[in-house]
Automatic annotation (TrEMBL):
Originating species: Deinandra increscens subsp. villosa
Domain RNA-binding S4: 249-311
SUPFAM superfamilies: Alpha-L RNA-binding motif (SSF55174)
InterPro entries: Nucleotide-bd_a/b_plait_sf (IPR012677), PSII_S4 (IPR017506), RqcP2_RBD (IPR040591), S4_RNA-bd (IPR002942), S4_RNA-bd_sf (IPR036986)
Keywords: RNA-binding
A Pfam family matched in the record: YlmH_RBD
Molecular function (Gene Ontology), one example: RNA binding
UniProt-recorded name of the protein: RNA-binding S4 domain-containing protein
Stored PANTHER family: MITOCHONDRIAL TRANSCRIPTION RESCUE FACTOR 1
Coiled coil: none
Amino acid sequence: MASMSFAAAAQPFLKRAVQAIPNPSFIFFNHKFNPSLSFTSSGFIIFPYYKFSIGICHLAQAVRGETEVLLKGAGERGSIEEVKHIIEMAKRASIRREVLHTDFLTPPVLKESMMVIEKLEDVTASVQGGYPEAERCRLSVGHPEALTTDPDIVAALSISGNFGFQPCSHGDFLGSILGTGIVRDKLGDILLQGEKGAHVLVVPELVDFLTMSLEKVGKVPVTCKKMPLIALEYEPPRIKSFKTVEASMRLDAIASAGFKISRSKLVGLISNGDVRVNWVTVSKNNTTLKSGDMISVSGKGRLKIGEVNETRKGKFAVELIQFL
C-alpha cells in the first residue's frame, strides 16, 4: 500500500471542519466575502483571504489619504497631528456605531477638528468643557444614532484652603495638580476663587485620585472635593490693555515688551520650552505673530495680541491684552 502524505490524509478532515462553520462568510464595510477551500498538488490549503487582506490595506491607505485631503490648509502646524488623530478616531467611532472621547483639547485643536468633522458624513460631535465659556474642552464623536445625548465626561473639583495671606495663581494650582503625576490633557479650565481657592475641571476617572492625592497648593494645605458642575462659579478674567510700538511682529520683540523682560531672557525661556503661542510650544524666537495670537510664558502669565496697525515709519503699533 502506497504511503499517504500527511497533507493528503488531512484533506477530508479540514474540509469537514470548514463545512462545520455555520456561515463561512464575513461582512466588511458592506462587502461580503465568501471563503472557499482548495488544495495545491502538494496538499497545502489555499484560502482566498489574500484578497481580503489586500482590501484592508487599500482601505487603510484610502482613509489616510482622505484624512490628508481634509486636513489640507489646517491653520496651526503644531496641531495637525493631533487633529489627524481625532479625525481618524471619529471615522472609527462612526463605522463601529460607538462614541469615543478625547481628553481636554486646546482651542486651536478643537477649532480645527470641528471644521473637518463638519465635512464628514455619518459623524456627529459634542463639545463639553463643564461650563458655557470653557476654554479647554473635551470632544465626543460618533455615529448620529449612537451619540444622541451629551455624555458625562467632565467633572468638577473644589480646591479650598486659607489663601488670604498666601494668594496662589493659576500656575500655582496647575503646578500642584500636575505634581501629583497626572498629565495636562486630563485637566480642563482652572477657575480661581480668590481667597477660597479654585474650581477645577477634570476627567471623571481622576476625581478619586485627586481628592486623595492633592494636599497642598504652594505652601497652603488644601481640601479637594467633588462638586456638581451647576455649582461652578465663573467670572470673566480680569484684563489690562496697553500698547507698544515695535519694529517687527517677531515673538521676541512682542513678548519681551508684553511681559517686560529682556529679549535675552526671553530667548532663554524659548530655548527651555517655556514659551507657547496658541497653546503650542515654540522653539524659534523669530516666530511671526498676528492679531488674535495668544502668548503664554511659564510663570509669567498670558498675553493676547489685539489690534495691530502699521505706523507711517513702517513700524507696528500693537495692542496687548494681559490676563491678570
